[in-house]
Amino acid sequence: MGHVGRTIDWADGTVVIVDQCALPAEHRLLRLATVDELIGAIQRLAVRGAPALGAAGALGVALAAHRHGTDTAAVHADAERLATARPTAVNLRWGVERALAKLSGGTDAVLAEALAMLDEDERVNREASAHAARLLLDTCARRPLRLLTHCNTGRLATVDWGTALGVVRQLHADGQLEYVLADETRPLLQGARLTAWELAEEAIPYRLLPDSAAAAAMARGLVDGVVVGADRIAANGDTANKIGTYGLALAAARHGLPFVVVAPSSTVDASLPDGGAIVIEERAPEEVTHVAGSPVAPKDAPVFNPAFDVTPVDLITAVVTEHGVVAGTAR
Ligand code: MRU
């Protein structure tokens, strides 16, 4: 299969993404030539993961600027539609606003900013994951480490490298990882479809488990620490991440295991004092009532399908960004 480069990039006036709806069956690229196509890709999770959404927001503003030229009102209108395409990951609006701030310099200035943000994404993710890897090695007595992770936080969720999965990659490269347990991550299976695919591609030892087996794995002594990403981190460190993260934090606390959140500082929303005000995306009932297109529940079964939950900071050992530990009980 081989390494496939960036998850999201700019080529010939289009946004090019790895189509995450097609994985793991097929690795294919999509060329998105309009803001509407990009918004559609964001909403069906063809491009997903908070840092990758930040890049998508910035490149989307570049698309809009190229399309509308000097009609700045039209660019602003497209930018607002992009920023609200999904509500929870703050990186999306952050990426849109950073690129939009360059609009007075012209379309080339917008694109230059968006491209600089792609480079920056990989650099800060590498720094954050190096900090978190060191922290886990300092915290856990056992060697090599056995980690548990949730959702997909690898290079597919970022421009490149990854956050929590970047920690896994770093520890593996340093010979400090025995294995990683990857939650399948119901209902959309980002762990099974994407994380397992990335780990297999890099020959990192892993086992896939149902989300409901995570606490049992901790109880059996199979886990030394839990490492996850984030979609929005409030000023006090409360963290929104993929649904199921809060339950993992509760289980980790019960078993005395470190619970580490890894994210670029662009995921921190300092405007929110705590996690109570974080808007949680609710997704379509079919994601729960159907599996791979086939019904697994009675027709019209009522559904509760939040895409994210909020983990209170008192359950988090450390929130780690490129600046080091910024919140958590270890701070
Ligand atoms: O709905 P998704 O797949 O976009 O959710 C992604 C997550 O929850 C990730 O854990 C988070 O964005 C961090 S990605 C480095």
Automatic annotation (TrEMBL):
Keywords: Amino-acid biosynthesis, Isomerase, Methionine biosynthesis. The record marks C151 as: Transition state stabilizer. One of its GO terms (molecular function) is S-methyl-5-thioribose-1-phosphate isomerase activity. Pathway: Amino-acid biosynthesis; L-methionine biosynthesis via salvage pathway; L-methionine from S-methyl-5-thio-alpha-D-ribose 1-phosphate: step 1/6. It is an enzyme of class 5 (isomerase). It catalyses: 5-(methylsulfanyl)-alpha-D-ribose 1-phosphate = 5-(methylsulfanyl)-D-ribulose 1-phosphate. It holds the Pfam family IF-2B. PANTHER family: METHYLTHIORIBOSE-1-PHOSPHATE ISOMERASE. This is Methylthioribose-1-phosphate isomerase.
